[in-house]
Amino acid sequence: MIGYKTLAVPGPTNMPFEIRQAMDVALEDHRAPDLPEFTLPLFQDLKKVFKTETGHIFVFPGSGTGGWESAISNTLNAGDKVLTASFGQFSSLWVKMCKTYGLDVVNCDVTWGEGVPLEDYRAILETDKNQLIKAVLVCHNETATGVTSDVQAVRRILDDLGHPALLFVDGVSSVGSLDFRMDEWKVDVIVSGSQKGFMLPTGLAIVGVSQKAMDAGKSASTPRDYFCYANMLQMNEQGYFPYTPPMTLLRGLRASIDMLTAEGLENVYKRHNRLASGVRAAVTAWGLENCAVDRKWYSDTVTAIRVPKSIDANNVIKTAYHSYGVSLGAGLGPLNGNVFRIGHLGWLNETMVLQALGGVEMAMRDAGIRFLPGCGVGAAIEKYTDTKAPMELAAE
Asked: Which is nearest to 260 in space by CA: 140, 153, 179, 145?
């Protein structure tokens, strides 16, 4: 196919030229005497993205799934009770991992399209008089359904009840794109990945860990080695890693942090909200439904779109890819065939979103979905031109 393909999945995201250029370097000595001159400022500047001054940020070769595993293995023991909620593919997989590790899982099974059930969490924690629940898990942004949950509200519940449970957050598709505040929300382990808001290839699990979580590791008996926080901290303090790090990705991560801080994190969050609002306007204009069942759940990084019952969403996805060079996210688990997903995060602007929406419109028409051609693109254009971009506002 002639021309660029349009990457509109919720990860991996588009990679800026500056990051590709930063990684296009000769391989280097990861034990070089001057490596700390690069790594130590990198670790410190990562804290700015996670909004922490007191936490530790660890960068593991791996994916977000490895980050999940690190949270469990470094802080808990088999038989420990944890509070979880499953409301999509990735929150459910984290629950599954907890069970694999032999944890006593108290799970809230929630309708896909909703988020963390705050009232249920409060009720369960209130009845935990002996404070047996050792950790509370929150999927900040459920990529499968396009749902964002309120992490801060979960923290308020824990504080209101004086409950000492650790707070674990899956921020794979939120950190670097959505407002996240590790210190303010007193998050104990936050898991992210390189291939979404950080605009890098897959390959890094970027994990924020509080001192409370580090202390919990002293009494945790779960085996860990590769993902051991204590080992990583000991080496990181000297500017090195306990094993061979992916230096090319770390060079890209340096460029990523520079780009995020140059734009300003608040502007990054506003830009994602703005881009998402255009996609949501398009969905409404098409006469389709957002998988997120209420506006309070709407994600600013990914929108899952329900197709009519007579249509197979996979036909839209295949047509978009093969006929128009547009990659869309598929429906996962029980949503397979019922939704397609548009990712709108990372290195992205209005015209790139409009390009994706135009490809979606052509694919939907070919798949038999009836709507007025151009109505979704037009609705997004109206949304974007009726409001100012964050950088325009900042310049005034």
From this structure: 179
